[in-house]
Amino acid sequence: MSIKLNTHYLESFIQPHEFERIAPEVRMADDMLRSKTGAGNDFLGWVDLPDRYDREEFARIQACAEKIRKTCQVLVVIGIGGSYLGARAVIEFLKSPNYNLLPKETPNIYFAGNSISSDALTEILSLCEGKDVCVNVISKSGTTTEPAVAFRVFRNLLEEKYGKEGARERIFVTTDRARGTLKQFSTDAGYETFVVPDDVGGRFSVLTAVGLLPIAAAGIDILKLMEGAAAASHAYTSTDLDRNDCYKYAAIRNLLYRKGKSVEILAGYEPFAAMFHEWWKQLYGESEGKDGKGVYPASVIFSTDLHSLGQFIQDGNRILFETVIDIADTHRRFAIPNDPANIDGLNFLSGKELDDVKKTAMLGTVLAHVDGGVPNTVIEVSERSEFALGELIYFFELACAVSGYVLSVNPFDQPGVESYKKNMFALLGKPGYESMRAELAKRLNY
Ligand code: PA5
């Protein structure tokens, strides 16, 4: 395995007997998941996806990615939430947050339809000027406002530029297998489509076509990603907490939550992981934050954020615990240069690898935060690779499901997401929302 859970720094916060006490709850959660008897059991398609994914569609994804790489300089990926975060997280993690600025054989990738910002939308439009463009629109429901607006805009762009026929060769749609307006529209228009499986919710969908097509278009080996996820799915089957790091992490979160630690900070030391933390935040926030319960998922990238949030973490309200991701082998090594004048007094670091300084900073920070009353768990990841990231994705998905069941919530629904949408539609005058509009307008003096 590329992943190891280091619980050494938890010893003053959780006693061995507490793990023994929560173990039956974890076993019960595992049973609900494996026997598909828990809440939300219609959405467990991700559990054995790494072994059972549709090989024919996978080959089509690879072929389509190849076509995109050959025919366009820009790929616009349209989607929001679970239909956006995973692809961006993986591309930035394995390539770079500066992917679009790097010299490369693959197209630039711009993510649209994930906000309601005119500036964001028009900026991407201007980045497409004079470039050959393809579009991958991703929406399970096909009705989400943000991506639907963006799709209108980019479909028009492509049709004006290439004509209806030409645009058809450049628009790829990832949506429900059979239902929804986007599916119907794609069939009528003759677009190539890929499937968001019925039994996989948005935030668990990165290893379906939702994530895999843009990821493959960026030149990433999606087979290795799936192999990593499969390895994790085979490894985390024991219900013995000492033999299952994934379930142990789920147990730790719940034990700390019961002690009043209601905010989990995912801490990393690599800027390339920042979007991966965003993906993790959606996974845990949407899965657990309901029924008045849940650990609030936050994230930081150190050492950057040690200079902003470090003070709060060390010394502020003691509601926090940290999960630190420590990635051992990254892509490059760099030694700190010597300065004969030693103007900055840093020659004690001359010749030292930056990674060694990072590791030391991490160890020093973990100890300081533990001393400050913040429980720390470290997830050690051996390398920055497709395989290891596939493992990590599956590790977090499985832990999230088990943690949610231990918390006694349905980890697979998101009823709270609808409230703002209803208000927004009513205020925008969507047909069918008339009486609600009148009531809201009164409250807002609108
Ligand atoms: O996790 C979820 O279910 C959400 O984040 C959805 O993915 C998001 O709202 C987008 O939905 P859709 O794919 O239907 O456009």
Radius of gyration: 23 Å
How many independent structural domains? 2
Q: Number of helical segments?
A: 16
Strand content: 5-15%
Entry keywords:
single chain, 446 residues, alpha/beta, Rossmann fold, 2 domains, five-stranded mixed beta sheet, five-stranded parallel beta sheet, 10 strands, globular, binds 5-phosphoarabinonic acid
Describe it for me?
With 446 residues, the chain is of the alpha/beta class. The chain contains 16 helices and ten strands. The chain has two domains: 3-37 and 226-406, Glucose-6-phosphate isomerase like protein, domain 1 (Rossmann fold), CATH 3.40.50.10490; 49-220, Glucose-6-phosphate isomerase like protein, domain 1 (Rossmann fold), CATH 3.40.50.10490. The radius of gyration is 23 Å and the shape is globular. 48% of the residues lie in helices and 14% in strands. The protein has helices spanning 16-34, 49-52, 55-71, 85-94, 118-128, 145-168, 181-189, 209-217, 222-235, 245-258, 274-288, 310-315, 354-371, 386-406, 417-428, 434-444; strands spanning 3-6, 74-78, 108-112, 133-138, 171-176, 192-196, 263-268, 296-301, 320-329, 376-383. The strands form two sheets. It has a five-stranded mixed beta sheet, sandwiched between helices. It has a five-stranded parallel beta sheet with strand order 3-2-4-5-6, sandwiched between helices. The N and C termini lie far apart (57 Å). The structure holds 5-phosphoarabinonic acid. 5-phosphoarabinonic acid is lined by residues 80-83, 139-141, 144, 147, 201-203, 286, 414.
